[in-house]
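Run log // design_07
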């Protein structure tokens, strides 16, 4: 069965697995299926490939290999970092985060509140920015961890994590950043950022779903979230997802090799799309500041039309985009990120995210620019408001 052409503009939700990554993984599904913890050579050899992948993902973030824990996803990494900070400092029962984090963080924090912990969700400005003085003032003596994402998955807006890490250092508080949206888009250097914990997810980087990592800075105390065998030096039980780990390593290598080029290419395509839409169509505007922002993300409001209708007609034209994050679509709630930025519910419900990736072309951008005005005009004509 051949698939009809798709125009994929939802790379912040997931990315296509790179063919090079698939090629690197296949031997570990077909032939080298041993358990890396086994003592015989058939297992040990597999373990060497896990080590090599660990070195590759460590290089991507300028960490030491032993500072990397492989997890099952970005969600597990976020949960694990916060869990560990609370478990290693039982007298500290406060978590400081923001109102615009991914649900992998927000919903875990909401659960902690139910368990009796105190959580502060810092507000953002209409531009999507944080007030760092307010952040500093919100750190309490019993704050176990500050968790602030680096790049917002919905708007692409970047938080100054290096400055935030410095504030936390000064205050003696642990700092975690959800950097899931950054690899391949920004240079990541954990030494320069000076963070204690950092989360990544492979499927946002052209590797498979179901594999992620948590960077834990050397000498930072760690308590495992998943307890079992002694894998990951006792920090994460469970037999290693070898093929996916190898794929993650290969994807990290590819991302490092192409970073400066891809960064400018994605930005040029994103700007062509965004500027094209804003210039051609009245009643459209960007959500949040133009900068500092991920080079690949554009979140736009289309006045007087429901995002759901736009997405449906885009889908009929083979175009994949999204409203809010993929993890919350299907629910009727407007995006918590946009409402935290002060958007009205109507505006939040009229907003679409386009997120570009390494496989997008100028011709694909032009295809969207050609089809979208007609879609919006049609919806506006049918709208009870229009
Ligand atoms: C996708 C995403 C996650 C969740 O990662 P999974 O591997 O899907 O669990 C967490 N944070 C951000 C910012 C994301 O974009």
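design_07 sequence
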């Amino acid at each position: 069965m051949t698939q009809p052409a798709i125009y994929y503009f939802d790379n912040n939700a997931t990315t296509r697995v790179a063919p090079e990554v698939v090629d690197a993984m296949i031997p570990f599904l077909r032939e080298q299926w041993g358990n890396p913890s086994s003592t015989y050579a058939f297992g040990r050899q597999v373990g060497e490939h896990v080590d090599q992948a660990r070195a590759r993902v460590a290089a991507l973030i300028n960490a030491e290999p032993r500072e990397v824990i492989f997890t099952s996803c970005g969600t597990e990494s976020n949960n694990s970092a916060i869990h560990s900070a609370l478990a290693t400092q039982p007298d500290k029962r406060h978590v400081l985060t923001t109102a615009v984090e991914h649900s992998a963080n927000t919903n875990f924090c909401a659960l902690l509140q139910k368990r009796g912990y105190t959580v502060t969700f810092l507000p953002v400005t209409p531009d999507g920015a944080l007030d760092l003085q307010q952040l500093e003032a919100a750190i309490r003596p019993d704050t176990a961890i500050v968790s602030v994402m680096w790049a917002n998955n919905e708007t692409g807006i970047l938080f100054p994590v290096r400055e935030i890490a410095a504030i936390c250092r000064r205050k003696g508080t642990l700092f975690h950043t959800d950097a899931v949206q950054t690899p391949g888009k920004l240079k990541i250097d954990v030494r320069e950022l000076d963070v204690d914990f950092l989360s990544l997810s492979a499927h946002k980087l052209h590797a498979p779903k179901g594999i992620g990592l948590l960077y834990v800075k050397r000498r930072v105390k760690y308590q495992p979230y998943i307890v079992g065998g002694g894998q990951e030096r006792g920090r994460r039980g469970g037999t290693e997802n070898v093929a996916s780990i190898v794929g993650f390593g290969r994807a990290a290598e590819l991302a490092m090799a192409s970073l400066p080029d891809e960064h400018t290419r994605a930005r040029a395509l994103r700007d062509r799309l965004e500027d094209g839409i804003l210039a051609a169509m009245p009643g459209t505007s960007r959500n949040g500041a133009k900068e500092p922002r991920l080079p690949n993300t554009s979140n736009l409001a289309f006045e007087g039309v429901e995002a759901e209708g736009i997405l449906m007609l885009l889908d009929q034209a083979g175009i994949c985009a999204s409203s809010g994050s993929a993890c919350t679509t299907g629910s009727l709630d407007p995006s918590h990120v946009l409402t935290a930025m002060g958007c009205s519910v109507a505006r939040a419900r009229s907003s679409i995210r386009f997120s570009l990736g390494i496989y997008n072309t100028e011709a694909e951008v032009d295809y969207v620019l050609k089809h979208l005005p007609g879609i919006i005009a049609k919806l506006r004509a049918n709208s009870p408001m229009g």
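The longest strand covers residues 297-302.
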